[in-house]
Amino acid sequence: MRFFISASHRAVFGAALALFGPEIEQGLAVERPSAISFTNDVVPIFTKAGCNGGACHAKAGNGQNGFQLSLYGFEPGEDFEHIVNEARGRRISQTAPERSLLLLKATGKLPHGGGVRLKETSDAYRIVREWIRQGARSDVGAAPVLTALRISPAHASLSKRQRQQLQVTAVYADGRTLDVTEQAVYESNDRAMAEVDEQGLATISDIAGNVAIMARYQSKIAVLSVAVPQGSELDATPPTRNFIDEHVFANLKKLAIRPSPVCDDATYLRRVSLDIAGRLPTEEEAKAFLADPSPNKRDHLVETLLRSPGYADFFAGKWTALLKNRRENTGDITANFAFHAWVRDSLLENKPYDQFVRELLAATGTIVGNPPVAWYKRVKEPKQQIEDVAQLFLGVRVQCAQCHHHPFERWSQDDYYALSAFFSQVGRKPSSVREEDMIFHKRGLATATNVKTGQVLKPAAFGDAVPEIAADEDPRLRLADWMSSKNNPFFAKALVNRYWKHFFQRGLIEPEDDIRDTNPPTNPELLAALEKHFVDSGFDLKELVRVITQSNAYQLGAHPNESNIADRQNYSRYYPRRMQAEVLLDAVDHLTGVQTDYANLPPGTRAVALPDSSYNRSTPFLKVFGRPEGESVCECERAQSSSLAQSLYLINAADIKGKLGSPTGRAQRLATSKEPHEARVRQLYLAAFAREPRGAELKTALTYLTEPRTDAAGKPIDAARADRENLQDLIWALINTKEFQFNH
Amino acid sequence: MHTIRHMTQFNRWNAALLCCVTAALSPSFASAQSVGLPAPRLLTTMPMGGAAGSKFEMTIGGDFLDGVKTLAFSDARIVAAPKLTAEGKPEANKFVVTIDAACPPGIYDARVMTRLGLSSSRAFSVGTLPEVVRTSPNTTTATAMELKVNSICNATVASRNVDHYVFEASRGQRVLVDCAAKGIDSKLIPVVIVADAAGNDLLVERRGGALDFSVPADGRYMIKVHELTFQGGPAYFYRLILRELKESESIVRHPTTSTVNSFSWPPQGLANANALKEQEPNNTGAEAQKISLPCDITGAFAPAADVDLFEFEAKKGEEWWVEVGSDRFGLPTDPAIIVQHVTGSGADEKVTDVAELSDIASPVKVSSNGYAYDGPPYNAGSSDILGKLTIAQDGRHRLKLTDLFGGTRNEPRNVYRLVIRKAEPDFALVAWALHMELRNGDRNALSKPIALRAGATMALEVVALRRDGFDGEIDLTMEGLPKGVRAAGLKIPAGKSRGIMLVSADADAAEAFASAKFVGRAKIAGAEATRPCRLASMAWPVADAWSEVPWPRLLADVPVSVTGAEPAPLTITPAKPEPIVAAPGAKVTIPLTLARRGEFNGGKMSVKFFGVGFEQAPAAEIPLTADKAEVVLDLAALKTPPGEYTIALYGGAVTKYRYAPEAVAAAEAARSNAEKSVSQVEQELKKLTEAVKSAPPVKKAEVDLACKAMEAKRKVVVAALAAASEQVKRASAAAEPKGIVDIVVSEPILVRIQPAEAK
After folding, report:
1. CATH number 3.40.50.720 is the correct assignment for the domain at B15-127
2. Using the beta-carbon criterion (under 8 Å), do B407 and A370 form an inter-chain contact?
3. Which residues, 6 or more positions from A481, have their beta carbon under 8 angstroms from its beta carbon?
């Protein structure tokens, strides 16, 4: 067989993008073919023309208007059936190929919802027509198999606004190669940094950093990684404290982005307390830390925070939301509290992460006896189980592969079902508690059936061979073994990336749970080093937090300079973020001195220690500020965006007013204390910002506190009341500052 | 807690105290009244145990504990006497308990004799360490209670609270922190935390385990205790054990009550010790431990995902019985066995499945805990193993024992005992108070002691677990009953698992109680075998089955009582004591006498039948307004073969029940006395007030003082009158007739079906 398009055929594609994809225009003269390959010549045309996208004829169900194509042409055999044989063969006319319904629709000669996809003058049109003329034959199974896709260049350092033409080469099983630059489909992982057109011409924007451009052809993908330097030489970086700094600063040097300087003590104290323990430092802690002359005080602070139950509470909140600890009815309370407590206690005792995941995946018994069993109460189907496990613990989204080959990944349906086979022997027997099963390993060979092919598959972990699993061995334990093996390409990477994002706001891979070849990390060396450090430490989560928070990269100031102001991905400064809902509520409680009360929990319980989602209903603050409901394993469920409702809430909500005016609150306590105004202001600033007020701030505050006040009728109000209300106003003002609401 | 609408713990000496105690401890009479006549229940004791050789005060609480005079235990070495006031009068709900120094440590049952008979049982622990009772709130780090190492603290946790304790320990010391809760009948799912002196958590245990704390530095440490979901109240009691351990000492936990399914352990005649020990490593075929059959092995499901392999030789046709005990020890395990025939070795090894053994199914259908009553919520089955192994071919066999719940858990305390024996046919028995569908959703009446009203018959459901192919019939008997109480066992037929025991009280029986002997007898291989029947009961009445799962346990013994204070509303007896004689296939009429001692809703009651050969009979109807009745049984339809039968009728009827009407008169008398006191004091006060007005200046101060004293006295008597009036209200409300549905069971009826006449 000989391919229709040779390397010399470089069609020129129109730049105009129709709603549903490109329209293929006139190409160059085409060499007369001897035989056209349906698999390798025809199907890629449908992909390039956008016919087999998920929104068009590859739409799940029945395609468009009864004509179904496989997504991105991953199933040419099915496509052949649909084009040639389905609908009594009316889509093809071999006697008059140009009268084929397929071509009449594609060229818009007959009404077509998708518009004109092929021009009659184009090579693509001629190829399809020629294929029909030759008898519309199938070569599925016989056509040379595409084994790899190469992109050139694969790495590049490009300056701002520079253009780069890509060349994409298909490699077939018989050793042949073919230039498919015209046929490939392109996508940038960050359109703000780089765009790419249909011909594979990439254009860099004004932002320095790392960007990737993906090329897809048939079932293969190839990626170009581009570094875009800022453009000026970088003289110096802060000193390096550990390997993280080496990699972060090396990347900044490569990109010539000048980092912000290391932050001051007060900022660090507040930042690291919020990031590790989800709380503001107390006034006493702030005073002590600021006065401490020890050069190692920041490292000591990290140790103290890691030892504190606040660390376990805060991170348990993160994990339990991802593990869907949601209350759907009142009977869930025991399961939810037990599960949350198990996560929290595991973190407190610093259970190795691989052990934690093993206990969850392979949980057996009853919920009270073994709380991770609660996960099996919420996530019941093997498919849901592997989808959650893959996304959460491996950073791989396999959902797509249930129905079709993953479009941006190498995962096939076989991979999907082979993974689900690990959960095929989860036995359930009723417990005495309604809707709670006891979980056990049900004896039998673990298998799963690919619903499309009917093939029965043994457990396999993303193509990694798993030795034979005996009928009386729990396959879930073998999955856990595979995950925690030192060479696992996903497990440690997914975790360190997730934790990196926790501390730096942006994952090295973003989104943090979408790790794939086509979504490369912004700093691969750093990710690899973190992964290695984590594995070498025995999957020690506290050590990971320690090494991150002790690095100077983490300690950089949040104020940008002219070099790094546009940087959003190279960690040249600390990216400020609004406090999470629970943390902010605790902070408001802390500053106002009035603790929010939660049902079924002891007074004094902090919002970060809430065990499940039910409190979002009873505490509107949490809902408004985006506390997740535990519906999905995605961190994105937590809304970190700002809204008018949030601003209005902090300005005006009844519970905020109640806290400010509470007779047991901080304003009242300060008002009745004998302390002078200045000491009061200092205390408030330490509580809110972990720092002393600056001169101007102090002056403004003192002026306000000593201003005479009058009532609505203009009469002076009594001094005690004025004092109290002035303090309430000052606290209210502090709550409504960005400095308070943000971790910076 | 629910509101209190009646007087559960009548206390003629201390009405004020009564209000506090009942309000705290008693569930709602209103919700309890709809199903099941009131039954006395001992629900709380404080403390919940004591050291052998000690004497201490105990306070009790519960349902329908009026007129408690006697606190009794399942062991004679524990005795109690009412606590007396300074005036020598018994103090309400307080006893002085004495534990003999020779009483071995362990769990016993406590119960009290009440107006309505002997109460349900509450676990009582005997230990060796000194004990204390927490007396003041310790819910903050600042109010933490000081505890000594090597002591036990008895306490309850309140809702949304965390109890705090502090103790002093030195570096290198090993301290065991154990919390007894569910194992002593508490509703508490305990969370126990060891924290530093500032209250920062160091170690946490939430799965019912104990904390083995190696003290890192000299100093003070804190223990926190709370409920998993921060529930609390009097039902959430616990015993906190703080004990120093030697370096190599293994942990021995606080003893616990026995689960229902433990009635079938151990098999008859199993040696207490000297069993063969499992030898690790035995996780792979090459390491399999060589044994020979029969055998008796002890081992542990540890470390996580432990596999224990044993190899033995056996010949085709051999039959063995395999039994594993582990779940029945109260451990959270699910043993599973695979037996395989093995040939070859190494790469050439070939294995063929011979047997797969898992759970012991309950011999009777267990409740699904749904809304409707669909079976007893007592599971006589287990996740342990009892099964037959038939050898299919000569040669080497490998037995693989694993814990299906042990994949990720590393708990050496999860032990097992594996017994492989030639058939030793046998049986084990367990019984519980019969329940039936009376009203959907109600499980309150499941918690019932064998406390008979005079003239009542109570049915116990008896279940047999048959071992090693035993299928003979089992006769049931009860001996050592209190005076005025009779028992009739309706046998467990051959091959079946369920029988009924009827316990009846004479209509004129007086108050009495005893610990009865309940046994089953059967012929095994020609010899008479007698086996005990254990009694199971609910630890708590469950008012709302939707939010709380009924939770049963075995009792230490079989307490039976009768009371004459309140007769049974209805007694159904055969009209004549002689057996009713019938020909095979005939229609037999059973004349009955009905003794009614109250009114009933509806004119009739539908009844079904207990007794082999009669259980399939269609429901019959009994009038609730007549003194006599007849039921007709069609022996032809029932196909009951000739023989002697004991049967009984049972059904549900709604009686108009009045609780302790005599208490109303007593309360009214008390109120009348209080009124007199008030009137007296008011007259005195009036006089004194006049006297103050007319007193000369020198006397004025003195008279003024007397007047003030009388004012104060008036306040006291007025308050006493208010309390007495309140008591009248409560007693009257309780004595108001209320419709209560309960099970009515007839006395046993003897039926003799004659052999067919020879033609």
Report:
1. no
2. no
3. none
- Summarised one tens digit per residue, pLDDT across range A346-363 is 999 999 999 999 999 999
Q: Using the beta-carbon criterion (under 8 Å), do B226 and A363 form an inter-chain contact?
A: no
The alpha-carbon gap from A727 to the nearest alpha carbon of chain B, in Å, equals: 30
**B124-164 residue pLDDT tens:** 999 999 999 999 999 999 999 999 999 999 999 999 999 99
CA of A474: which chain B residue's CA is closest? B407
Tell me which of A133, A157, A176 is where a domain ends: A133
Beta bridge partners of B120: B41
B546 contacts: CB under 8 Å, gap ≥ 6: A331, A434, B371, B441
Of A245, A299, A275, A302, whose CA–CA distance to A572 is shortest? A245
Report residue B528 as tokens.
């008479």
Give the Cα separation of A424 and A441 in Å (integer). 9
The verdict on A385 and A412 lying in the same domain is: yes
CB contact under 8 A, B400 and A432: no
Nearest to B332 among A307, A366, A472 (CB): A366
Chain A contacts of B203, Cβ < 8 Å? 349
Helix or strand run (H / E) with residue B562: strand B558-563
State how far the Cα of B377 lies from the Cα of B369, in Å rounded to an integer.
7
Chain A residue numbers with beta carbons less than 8 Å from the beta carbon of B332 are 365-366, 369-370
Q: Which of A285, A289, A345, A350 is nearest to A320 (CA)?
A: A345
Chain A positions in Cβ-Cβ contact with residue B400 (cut-off 8 Å): 472
ipTM of the assembly? 0.87
Task: Residue A423: list chain B partners with CB under 8 A.
Answer: none
Q: Is A374 on the interface with B (CB under 8 A)?
A: no
Q: Does A305 touch chain B (CB under 8 A)?
A: no
pLDDT average, residue stretch A178-190 = 90
Amino acid A404: pLDDT = 61
Instruction: Determine the Cα–Cα distance for residues B613 and A193; give it in Å rounded to an integer.
Output: 87
Chain B interface, best mutation among A284, A303, A359, A440, by max B CB count within 10 A: A440
Within 13 Å of residue A284, how many CA atoms lie on the same side as its CB? 0
Beta-carbon pairs below 8 A across chains A and B: 107
For the stretch A384-422, pLDDT in tens is 999 999 999 999 888 766 666 666 666 788 888 999 999
Burial of B222 (C-beta count, 10 Å sphere; 0-12/13-18/19+): buried
Pick the CATH number of B260-424 from 3.40.50.460, 2.60.120.380, 2.120.10.30, 3.40.50.12100: 2.60.120.380
A97: Cβ contacts below 8 Å, ≥ 6 apart = A103, A129, A130, A132, A133
pLDDT in tens, B306-320: 999 999 999 999 999
- The whole-angstrom separation of Cα B443 and Cα B440 is 9
Separation CA A175–CA B286 (nearest Å): 48
Residue of B nearest to A333 (CA): B229
Q: Taking CB atoms and an 8 Å limit, are B408 and A358 in contact across chains?
A: yes
